[in-house]
Amino acid sequence: MVNFSLEGKVALVTGASYGIGFALATAFAEAGAKIAFNDIKQELVDKGLASYKEKGIDAKGYVCDVTKEDQVQALVANIEKDLGPVNILVNNAGIIKRIPMIEMKAEEFRQVIDVDLNAPFIVSKAVIPSMIKNGGGKIINICSMMSELGRETVSAYAAAKGGLKMLTRNIASEYGKYNIQCNGIGPGYIATPQTAPLRERQPDGSRHPFDSFIVAKTPAERWGNAEDLQGPAVFLASSASDFVNGHILYVDGGILAYIGRQPE
Ligand code: NAP
Ligand code: GCO
Fold it and tell me: Which of 145, 210, 250 to mutate for ligand 2's pocket (most ligand atoms within 8 Å of CB)?
């Protein structure tokens, strides 16, 4: 029988006080996993703990900046002490800076690469040794439409998410022999705090032009919500996907397949 259960597994979802990470961790808990998550600030970890508690989930929260290798090593050691070795890692923490490339400072470009690409390397490197020791594991990298497409003002983010697609494939290639599956989820446009600026109502009450643009580019004719990602994530975290490796599963309502609705 196909097994989507996560009973007895320890899942670490980075940056999961709210947003997509919170939704994925919630789904993992509902499938039986023990949940560990981190955020940069204690008050956000506390906010996340309260939100998980409201859903009846006894998550463990840790303050950790995923770009700092020493903090990540300590995070993984603390999770192992509190819950056991990490069986499932979701590299979810991420930032975006929407700045025209020639106006972007090199430091701003580096900051995005640091969180969105260097950090998944750092956190994956921290958990793979114990996954090897324990006979395998699951790594899920949260990629993006920008793993495949570019657009104005998101050069750093697209470079990072394109790199994350290839890091996903490389981890799959290098560690598949240890029964570690590393895959990506490429969400379409999801209604979270990160995309709130793209959906703001205009002063005259009309929809943000980008909001209308995305709806016209999406066959499903709607923005996604974080819950749309839960089933694909549980699939990739479970033994149901043990022969899926190095794959980027796009959960985008069809954006990548569609040229876009023609103007009326
Ligand atoms: P979000 O609402 O901005 O949440 C991002 C989370 O990451 C926040 O909890 C944030 O914590 C945390 N974080 C940022 N930098 C961190 C660091 N250095 N160390 C630890 N935590 C850090 O974003 P989201 O929309 O849920 O997106 C989550 C992931 O999905 C990101 O990788 C994003 O690129 C990706 N994604 C989003 C969409 C979308 O349409 N929303 C689509 C495709 C992919 P703070 O609040 O403390 O900053
Ligand atoms: C943007 C958006 C996108 C989404 C997502 C799409 O400014 O274009 O923020 O990048 O966050 O990555 O998959």
Answer: 145
